[in-house]
């Protein structure tokens, strides 16, 4: 993966969807990168959305606890019944009268089981739900880290545009001064035209860069969760090279194993699915519990049967309580579910094996990129200094008529290239540290760890 980039490609990608701020005249609020990173990820909409997954797994735990509480089936109803009197046991009182009248019949039924022993299934499912919460937490942590990278990218991008705007503004002033001097000298009109064309190109570039900075500032507010009416700006004015001491590759590889959220996700996901598969198999085992049943019915349209040998479905009040087993026989369904979960667990194991190797390579890549741009900055700094000297001498020569306009424009182009290249190396160096932090899974940029930005 190439770490170098065109002048504003990443800024454009990140901020092209943002709307320009309508509150440019509001008081400027200066915020440091550390302040933004401390508050921004927790207010970002992507992070908020991901945090809801934790609440979902908490509900799963509550559902499991509810599943192993007493199960009660209740039936209650009221309906019409023909009125009739009679005693089925004592036939002398079996006269039936008023059979054409309608009266009310009340019926109620309650039955259930209080689980006493479930073969540890409840514990398996509760632990699976807990691992699910850990999985969601690790996924949330990964989203936070990705948001931190975006915030750093935009923040450094704003500083980059500040430098370029300042450089172009200085160039416009210098070219305008040269044009004024050229008008007083005996220069060719073609030289004057060339300088004016170059001046207008600089002004167009200035507008373009300012627009990109405006977009980046709006992106910064959006990702950091600031109100769009606020005029947020970085506390720093310019993108500057701050040296950091990079540690050994083994140090960052060890941090990867300990901190990478994606590795935590896989580990927690595998364990959650393993426990779910066990719990699903145990759903076929008979459960020991306290069984109870209560039946009630009443109507004044039927005469209650007083004999213990008579079954009276219309006037009844009975309770049965005892110890027994409840066995749901659905072997085919439970077996299929358990096997499906086991397959998903095996898939995660293969993914885990690949991820460990892949993430280690990614850390190595980012580590090398940090070192690469550290060297590039040294070289571009020298080139930038030489380009600045060349431009200064050319401006002096152009002002006194010793150098042609073409040479002035070429000197500016060389200066612009060397300056832009140096700034981009600094930008990429800062971003390389940000990407190293993301690949490791925790902040490793010495500047953010040791002082406030």
What can you tell me about this protein's structure?
This protein has helices at 9-15, 33-43, 45-67, 121-184, 189-224, 249-259, 261-282, 331-399, 405-440, 446-450, and strands at residues 28-31, 71-82, 102-117, 231-234, 287-298, 316-326. By secondary structure, the chain is α+β, with helices and mostly antiparallel strands. Helix 1 (9-15) packs across helix 5, helix 2 (33-43) crosses helix 4 and helix 8 runs antiparallel to helix 9 (405-440). The strands form 2 sheets. Strands 2-3-5-6 form a 4-stranded antiparallel beta sheet, with no helix packed on it. A two-stranded parallel sheet has the order 1-4. It has 10 helices and 6 strands; from the N terminus they run αβααββααβααββααα. 63% of the residues lie in helices and 13% in strands.
Shape field: elongated
Structural class: alpha+beta
Number of helices: 10
Physical arrangement of strands within the biggest beta sheet: 2-3-5-6
Short key terms for the protein model shown above:
453 residues; single chain; 10 helices; alpha+beta; two-stranded parallel ribbon; 6 strands; 13% strand; four-stranded antiparallel sheet; disordered N terminus; 63% helix
What would you say about this model in short?
The protein has 453 residues and is an alpha+beta fold. The protein has helices at residues 9-15, 33-43, 45-67, 121-184, 189-224, 249-259, 261-282, 331-399, 405-440, 446-450; strands at residues 28-31, 71-82, 102-117, 231-234, 287-298, 316-326.
Question: What are the SSEs and their pairings?
Answer:
Blueprint: H1 9-15, E1 28-31, H2 33-43, H3 45-67, E2 71-82, E3 102-117, H4 121-184, H5 189-224, E4 231-234, H6 249-259, H7 261-282, E5 287-298, E6 316-326, H8 331-399, H9 405-440, H10 446-450
Helix pairs in contact: 1-4, 1-5, 2-4, 3-4, 4-5, 4-7, 4-9, 5-9, 6-8, 7-8, 8-9
């Amino acid at each position: 993966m190439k770490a170098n980039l065109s002048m504003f490609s990443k800024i454009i990608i990140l901020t092209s969807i943002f709307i320009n701020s309508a509150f440019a005249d509001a008081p400027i609020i200066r915020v440091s990168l550390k302040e933004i990173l401390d508050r921004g990820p927790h207010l970002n909409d992507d992070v908020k959305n991901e945090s809801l997954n934790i609440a979902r797994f908490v509900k799963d735990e509550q559902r499991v606890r509810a599943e192993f509480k007493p199960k009660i089936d209740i039936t209650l109803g009221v309906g019409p019944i023909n009125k009739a009197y009679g005693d089925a046991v004592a036939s002398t009182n079996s006269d039936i009268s008023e059979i054409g009248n309608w009266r009310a019949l009340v019926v109620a039924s309650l039955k259930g089981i209080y689980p006493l022993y479930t073969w540890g299934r409840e514990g398996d499912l509760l632990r699976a739900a807990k691992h699910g919460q850990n999985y969601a937490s690790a996924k949330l942590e990964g989203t936070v880290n990705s948001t931190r990278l975006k915030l750093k990218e935009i923040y450094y991008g704003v500083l980059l545009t500040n430098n370029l705007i300042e450089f172009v503004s200085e160039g416009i002033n210098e070219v305008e001064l040269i044009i004024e001097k050229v008008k007083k000298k005996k220069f060719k009109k073609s030289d004057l035209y060339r300088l004016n064309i170059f001046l207008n190109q600089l002004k167009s570039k200035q507008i373009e860069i300012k627009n990109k900075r405006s977009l980046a500032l709006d992106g910064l507010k959006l990702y950091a969760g600031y109100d769009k009416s606020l005029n947020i700006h970085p506390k720093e004015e310019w993108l500057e090279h701050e040296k950091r001491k990079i540690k050994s590759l083994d140090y960052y590889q060890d941090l990867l194993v300990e901190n990478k959220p994606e590795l935590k996700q896989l580990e927690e996901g595998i364990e959650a699915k393993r426990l779910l598969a066990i719990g699903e198999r145990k759903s076929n085992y008979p459960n020991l519990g306290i069984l109870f049943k209560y039946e009630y019915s009443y109507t004044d349209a039927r005469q209650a049967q007083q004999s213990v040998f008579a079954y009276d479905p219309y006037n009844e009040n009975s309770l049965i309580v005892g110890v027994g087993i409840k066995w749901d026989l659905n072997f085919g369904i439970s077996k299929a579910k358990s096997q499906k979960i086991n397959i998903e667990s095996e898939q995660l194991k293969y993914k885990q094996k690949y991820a460990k190797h892949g993430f280690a390579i990614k850390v190595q890549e980012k580590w090398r990129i940090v070192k690469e741009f550290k060297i590039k900055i040294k070289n571009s700094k020298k080139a930038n200094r030489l380009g600045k000297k060349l431009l200064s001498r050319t401006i002096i020569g152009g002002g006194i008529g010793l150098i042609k306009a073409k040479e002035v424009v070429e000197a500016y182009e060389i200066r612009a290239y060397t300056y832009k290249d140096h700034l981009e190396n600094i930008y990429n160096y800062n971003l390389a540290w940000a990407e190293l932090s993301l690949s490791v899974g925790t902040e490793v940029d010495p500047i953010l760890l040791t002082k406030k930005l």
